[in-house]
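Hi V.,

Quick status before I head out on leave. The structure for the redesign project is tokenized and pasted below; the design run finished overnight.
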């Protein structure tokens, strides 16, 4: 009997998974459905470049349905709820999709309304986010007219999509104001709820050093609770205030709204509890998840979704064939970090291993790890082509597999006396 596979989410994870499964299963073996609320697929790493005029929104947005292989049914609708006990998905338009296997790939949802005052007066006038196409576009106009003052880049709380992006924005802002020859009139502050610049100690120390070199003030453990967009004040729960002329914030994130409406599917934040090695959810054996929708202890980044996808596709096939699941996903994450002036550094890590210096993807390189280089910057720019033409269609990227490579990394040792 033909299997019914339903994939919720037409972003990176959902599209890649659908295309890989369509290549594996003939049309008479499996029917594949992809559901998403709209038909706009955003290349999210490109949003970082929009505020600085280095990319345009229309260059990084394409129709979702056109990224899917022939033979995949695309449904443009919100998900109302998932009935995991009945193996059915209810769409907002009333459609009911039964499934033999369900994949949750609906990512993370921005929740700026959860921070008091953020979306009130001053929103998209003095306070912005570049995490949406509209927000990035509006911020680009604000930066063009900005002639000096205090710029606060704020990460309200984890988890967020692409944890390095707020840092990248601060670095690129430094370069942008230098190029406009007004850097001496701009005070740059990076305020984060974390106790350091990043979640991983080795990388955090290195990135904090870069912030210092670029005269960007680092304010840690700043748990933002209220924004006064008119008065230009960001307040933390412990009573500290940061004045700003321009606020660039990364709002709170949560899971997709339908997860909260689906008993037994998600946690209190709307993320889906998922086995960190197999990508099978804890909700039901025939429900899998990947990408930003999960609760996995790794970065919510496109590279993670890519590496998860290799194991996920294999496990979907194994599950439908009644075989033991592959438990090899190791939390592999890989991130280019733009540092301005046409340079970037690269970090590569997993559940157990910190970002370390060395070379990637092997001992002979070509990309340096945890070190600024022009080659890393070019690698980040080139990845957009790879994304549209290799990653989303479900093709293999030569030399880069799901497991984190150990070769080329310089493991740091400590000595005791």
């Amino acid at each position: 009997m033909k299997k019914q596979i339903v994939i919720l989410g037409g972003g990176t994870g959902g599209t890649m998974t659908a295309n890989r499964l369509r290549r594996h299963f003939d049309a008479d073996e499996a029917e594949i459905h992809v559901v998403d609320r709209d038909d706009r697929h955003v290349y999210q790493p490109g949003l970082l470049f929009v505020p600085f005029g280095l990319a345009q929104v229309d260059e990084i947005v394409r129709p979702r349905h056109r990224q899917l292989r022939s033979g995949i049914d695309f449904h443009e609708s919100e998900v109302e709820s998932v009935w995991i006990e009945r193996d059915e998905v209810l769409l907002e338009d009333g459609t009911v999709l039964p499934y033999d296997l369900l994949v949750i790939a609906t990512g993370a949802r921005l929740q700026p309304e959860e921070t008091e005052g953020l979306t009130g007066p001053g929103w998209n006038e003095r306070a912005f986010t570049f995490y949406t196409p509209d927000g990035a576009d509006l911020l680009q106009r604000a930066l063009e007219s900005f002639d000096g003052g205090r710029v606060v880049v704020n990460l309200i709380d984890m988890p967020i999509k692409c944890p390095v992006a707020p840092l990248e924005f601060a670095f690129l802002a430094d370069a942008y104001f230098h190029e406009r020859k007004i850097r001496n009139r701009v005070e740059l502050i990076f305020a984060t709820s974390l106790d350091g610049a990043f979640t991983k100690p080795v990388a955090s120390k290195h990135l904090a050093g870069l912030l210092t070199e670029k005269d960007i003030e680092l304010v840690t453990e700043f748990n933002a609770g209220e924004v006064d967009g008119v008065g230009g004040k960001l307040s933390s729960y412990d009573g500290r205030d940061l004045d700003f002329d321009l606020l660039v914030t990364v709002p709170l994130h949560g899971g997709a709204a339908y997860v909260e409406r689906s008993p037994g599917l998600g946690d209190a934040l709307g993320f889906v509890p998922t086995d960190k090695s197999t990508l099978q959810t804890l909700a039901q054996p025939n429900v899998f998840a990947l990408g930003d929708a999960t609760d996995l202890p790794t970065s919510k980044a496109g590279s993670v979704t890519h590496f998860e996808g290799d194991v996920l596709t294999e496990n979907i096939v194994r599950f439908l064939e009644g075989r033991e699941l592959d438990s090899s996903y190791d939390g592999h994450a890989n991130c280019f970090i733009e540092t301005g002036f046409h340079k970037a550094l690269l970090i590569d890590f997993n559940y157990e291993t910190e970002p370390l210096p060395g070379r990637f993807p092997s001992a002979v390189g070509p990309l340096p790890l945890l070190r600024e280089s022009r080659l890393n910057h070019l690698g980040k720019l080139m990845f957009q082509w790879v994304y549209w033409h290799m990653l989303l269609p479900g093709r293999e990227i030569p030399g880069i597999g799901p497991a984190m490579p150990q070769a080329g990394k310089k493991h740091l040792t400590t000595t005791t006396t």
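Above is the designed sequence. The radius of gyration is 22 Å.

G. will cover questions while I'm gone.

Best,
W.
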